[in-house]
Write the C-alpha cells for this entry.
Amino acid sequence: MDHALRASSSSSASTRVVDVLVPVALDQTYSYRVPRGMELEPGDVIGVPLGPREVLAVVWAENAKPDPRLHNRLKDVIEKLDVPPLRTELRSLVDWVANYTLSARGMVLRMALRMGEQLGPERVRLGVRLTGAVPARLTPARRRVIAVLSDRLLHGKSEAAKEAGVSTGVIDGLVDEGTLTVEAMPRALPPPPPDPSYGQPEFSRQQRPAVDAMRALAANGTFHVALLDGVTGSGKTEVYFEAVAETIRRGRQSLILMPEIALTGQFLDRFAQRFGVRPLEWHSELTPRTRQRNWAAIAAGEAPVVVGARSALFLPYAHLGLIVVDEEHDQAYKQDDGVHYHARDMAVVRAHIAKIPIVLASATPSVETEVNARKGRYQRVALPQRFGGQHMPHIEAIDLRREAPPRGRFISPLLAGEIKTAVERREQALLFLNRRGYAPLTLCRACGHRFACTVCDAWLVDHRFRQRLVCHHCGFSMPRPPACPHCAAEQSLVAVGPGVERLQEEAAALFPEARTMVLSSDLITSIETMRSELHEIAEGRVDIIIGTQLVAKGHHFPRLNLVGVIDADLGLGNGDPRAAERTWQLLNQVIGRSGRDQGRGIGYLQTHQPEHPVMKALIACDREAFYANEIEARERTGYPPFGRLASLIVSAGDRPTAEGYARRLAATAPREERVQVLGPTEAPLAVIKGRYRFRLLLKSARGFDLSDYLRHWLANGPKTKGNLKLEVDIDPQSFL
Ligand code: ADP
Ligand code: ZN
C-alpha cells in the first residue's frame, strides 16, 4: 500500500467523485471520493474500502454531478495500483457480456482481474540486504540470518527467512536495528519475444491460398471473421501461425484460445519450433505467482502471444491485434457456472469492439459458424486436403446387431482382428469410449439393488483404479462394499456396462503382449504427467491407447492408424438438440487422429444404428450431407442459429419449493408473440448435490433481444428467497 497517496478524508480535501466497479457479485457501481493529489482516470485499478476490508476495484466512470448531500458519506479511494488502466475496449466488453448473459458486472470484471485470492497484479516483492553494523549481542537465529546474507546481495525476504530457518519476524528485528535494509526486488526479466521469421515452413500448393488469406487478414488489422475450415491433418495450426506472425510484425498481441489448455504440450512445442520460444500460457493450473506475473506482462504489452483457456479472453491486453479460436466447435468453450458465457461467441464480440480480426479454426465447425460462413458473414478459408499427401481415414461401421462382442465384452471380433494386425505391424490403435471409470453402474445380482448417489439423481460409477464408487456430478465417493448394503448377499455385486478402465482390462486380456495406456481426465494427476504421457504415445512407446474425449483433441500421433469407436451411439440418445452435431464432431475428431503421418488411417464405428443419418454421413465422409441435413432441421424447428434459446434453471433444497417457484415464475412471463416459454419441467438431472431442479426453456426469433426480455421479466417476477436459486443461461449448450 502506498501511504504517500493516502489523503485526508475531510470533505474539503476533494470534490472529485468517481464511480467504481468492484469485482464481486454486484451489478452497480459505487461512488468514492478521489483524495487530493491522486490522479485517476477511467480504467485505473484502485483499492477502495468495502465494509471492513480494502478491495480491488476499477474506476468505471467519472461522476460529473455527485450529489452534494451524499458527499460527506462517501469514502475515499485508498490507493491507485501501479498497473496500466483497463482500456475502454475491455471495459466495454465487461459491460457487454454482463448485459448479454444477465450476470452482475462485478462478476465479469472479476474474470478480467483474475478470480480467486490472487486478485490483481503482482505485488512488489521485498528483499533484504546486509548494509549496517552487526549488533554486538546476537541470538543464534539472528546469527543464521546474517550468515545467509553475508554476501551483501539482495535476498527475497521470505526466502532468506526460510534459508536461515527463522520467522520473518527475526528479519524485521534486524531491519529495526539498522543491520538490514529493505529494498524492492527487481521483477523477473520477460522472456525473449517470439520471432516471426524463426521457423517459417514451406507451404504446399494447397495451403498457399489459405496462408495468403491469413496474412492479409492480419495485415489489414480490422474487424473481420474468418473460418479456417480445414480437414484434420491439413495444417490449420501452421496456417494460422502466419496470421500470428504477421501480427507480431505489426507489434500487436495475439491471443490463441484453446479448449483444453492442459493438453497442449505438443502445441507449445510446435509454437516454439515456429517462433523460437514458447508463448505465454494462461489457464487455471498456473501457480498464483505465475498468474500474477503473466497478468502483469499481458497488461504491460510484454507478452506478444498468449495461449489460453477461455478465461484468457478477459485479460487486459495492452494492444490486442488478433484472436484465434482453435477447435471453435468445442463445447469446453461454454462456461456453465458463475458467468454463463460462450468464449467463442464473446471472442467475436471482443474482436468487434477492439476492431481486430478473428480466426475460428475447426475441421468440424459448429452449425452456427457454418451457417455464418454460408451466408457470407464469415469468410471461409478452406484447407480441403491433408498435408503431405496423406489421405483422410476410411470409415466403416461395425453393426453390433450382427457382429456383437462375446457376452460381457465390448470389443467386437472384427475390431479385435484389426487391432491385432495393427499391433503386429507395429502401428498404434486407439480405442475410444467417452466414459470414465470402470463401469457406469454397479448392481446386486441377488436383490437388484443399484448403487446411486445419495444427493444426486445419478448412478455411482465404479472406478477400479481408485477403488471407489464415484458420483460424476458431485464427487461423492465410497469404497465398493464387500456385501450388498440392501440384502447383505456377498460376492453379489456386478459391474454393468463399460468404462475405459474396463476396456483396458479387455484389451490386456486380448493382447497380452501389447502395451496399453488409459487416458482419462480423472486419471490426470498433473498437467506435467499428462503431457509426458502424451509424449510417450507420440514417441510410439504405447501400442493400444484407450481414451475418453481427451484423446480426440488436436493430438498428432505419427504411428496411429487405427481408431475403434466402442459405442458410436453413446451421444445420440440423450434428447440434446445438438446430439447429432456433437456426435459428428467428436467422432470426426477422434477418427481424424489416425493416418496423419504414414499409411492409411481407418476408423471403425461400433453401432446399433448404422443407418442413422450421422453414421451414414460419417461413413461416406459426406460433410455436405451432414450440414445440409442438420441446417435444414434447425431451420424447420427454429433452433439456433435460426432462433434463439435461453434456459432458466430453478433449484432448491426440496422439490415442492423448486417446482412451486418455477410455476409462479412461468406464470409471470410477459406476453410476447415472438417468444415461446416452455415448461417448467423437471430437469433431466433432477437432483444435484441435494438440490431439486426444474427448467424453463425460452425460444425466440433470431433477431429478438432475449436478454432484454428476460431482464424485464425477472425484474417483475417473483423474488428468490431462502435457498431458492435461479440461474439464467443464454444460448444454453447443456440441457441437463
Ligand atoms: P490440423 O490442425 O489441421 O489437424 P496440423 O496443423 O496438426 O493439422 O498439421 C498436421 C501435421 O502436418 C503436423 O505435424 C504439422 O506440423 C504438419 N504440417 C502441416 N503443414 C505443414 C507444412 N507446410 N510444412 C511442414 N509440416 C506441416
Ligand atoms: Zn452426487
